[in-house]
C-alpha cells in the first residue's frame, strides 16, 4: 500500500465526512494540536538549519551551492513566520487553510532536506547522509504533489468521480516513485552520490 493511499478520501466540500477536505471546519482540538505541532516542527527546522550552516558551510563551497543553501535557510525562516501568522488567523480551523498549513509544513521539510543535501555535498564522510536526504526529498516532493492536489480539489470543488480517478493515478505514480527510489539504492536511476 502506498503512503499516499489516503488521498482517495477526498469528497466534495458540501458532502458529509470525516476527512478534513470534506468539511467546512475541522475539529478544533485536533487542528489546534496539529497546528502547534506544525509550528514547532518548522521552528525546529529553522534552528537546525542555522546550526548546520555554521557547522558545514565553509569558504570552499561553490557560489551556486552557497546561494542555494542561503535561499533555503532564509525560506525556512519565512515559512515559520507565515505559519505563525496562519496560527493567529481566526479562520485557521477552516479546511482550506488547514490544508494550506499541511502543504507549508511539507514544503518546509523539502527545503530543509535540500539544504542538508547541499551542505554535505562534497564532504567525504557524509555520502550516506546525502543519499538519505535526497531520497527523503524525492518522497517529500511526491507528498507535496498529493497535498497540492487535495488543496486544489477542495478549493475548486472537483467532482467526486474526477477526484477518485486522479487519486488512483496519483497513488499508482507514488508507488512507482517509491519503487524507483528503492531501486536507486542499488542502481542509480535518479541520483548517485560517490565517496
How far is the N terminus from the C terminus?
Answer: 34 Å
Order of helices and strands: HHHHH
Number of strands: 0
Beta-strand content estimate: under 5%
Oligomerization state of this entry?
Answer: single chain
Helix content: 55-70%
Question: What is the compact description of this entry?
Answer:
By secondary structure, the chain is an all-alpha fold. The chain contains five helices and no strands. Mean pLDDT is 79; it is low at 1-27.
What does this structure look like?
The chain has 195 residues and is mainly alpha-helical. It has one domain. It is 70% helix and 0% strand. It contains 5 helices and no strands. The chain has helices at residues 28-56, 63-88, 95-120, 127-156, 160-184. Helix 3 (95-120) packs antiparallel against helix 4 (127-156) and helix 4 (127-156) runs antiparallel to helix 5. The longest helix has 30 residues, at 127-156. The chain is flat and about 50 Å long. Residues 1-27 have low confidence and may be disordered.
Amino acid at each position: 500500500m502506498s503512503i499516499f493511499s489516503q488521498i482517495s478520501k477526498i469528497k466534495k466540500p458540501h458532502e458529509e465526512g470525516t476527512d478534513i477536505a470534506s468539511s467546512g471546519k475541522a475539529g478544533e482540538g485536533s487542528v489546534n494540536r496539529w497546528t502547534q505541532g506544525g509550528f514547532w516542527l518548522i521552528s525546529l527546522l529553522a534552528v537546525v538549519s542555522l546550526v548546520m550552516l555554521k557547522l558545514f558551510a565553509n569558504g570552499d563551497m561553490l557560489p551556486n551551492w552557497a546561494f542555494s543553501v542561503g535561499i533555503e535557510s532564509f525560506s525556512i525562516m519565512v515559512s515559520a513566520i507565515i505559519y505563525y501568522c496562519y496560527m493567529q488567523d481566526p479562520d485557521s480551523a477552516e479546511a482550506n487553510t488547514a490544508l494550506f498549513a499541511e502543504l507549508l509544513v511539507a514544503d518546509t521539510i523539502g527545503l530543509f532536506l535540500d539544504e542538508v543535501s547541499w551542505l554535505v555535498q562534497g564532504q567525504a564522510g557524509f555520502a550516506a547522509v546525502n543519499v538519505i536526504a535526497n531520497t527523503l526529498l524525492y518522497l517529500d516532493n511526491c507528498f507535496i504533489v498529493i497535498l497540492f492536489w487535495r488543496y486544489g480539489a477542495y478549493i475548486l470543488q472537483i467532482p467526486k468521480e474526477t477526484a477518485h480517478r486522479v487519486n488512483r493515478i496519483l497513488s499508482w505514480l507514488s508507488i512507482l516513485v517509491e519503487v524507483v527510489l528503492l531501486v536507486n539504492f542499488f542502481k542509480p536511476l535518479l541520483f548517485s552520490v560517490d565517496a
